[in-house]
Amino acid sequence: MDILLSILGLLGFILLTAGTGVFVAVEFSTTSLERSTIDNDVATRGDSASRMVQKAHGNLSFMLSGMQLGITLTTLATGYLAEPILAKFFTPLLELVGLSESASMPIALILSLIVATVLSMVFGELVPKNMAIANPLGTARVLTAPVWHFNRIFRWFIRALNWVANHIVRWFGIEPADELASARSPQELSALVRHSSGTEGFDQSKVRIIDRSLRFGDVTAEDLMTPRAKVNTLDVDDSALELIRLAHESGHSRFPVVRGDLDETVGVVHVKDALTIPATSRAATLVGSLSRPVPAVPESLGGDAVLRQVRLAGSQLILVADEYGGTAGIVTIEDVVEEILGEVWDEHDNREEEREVRQVGRSWELSGLLRCDELSDICGYIAPDGPYETLGGLIMATLGRIPAEGDRVLLPVDSRRLIDAFTEGPEVRWEAQVVSMDVRRVDKVMVRPVTGTEPGQDEPAGQDEQDQPKGGAA
Question: What is the pTM of this model?
Answer without folding.
Answer: 0.51
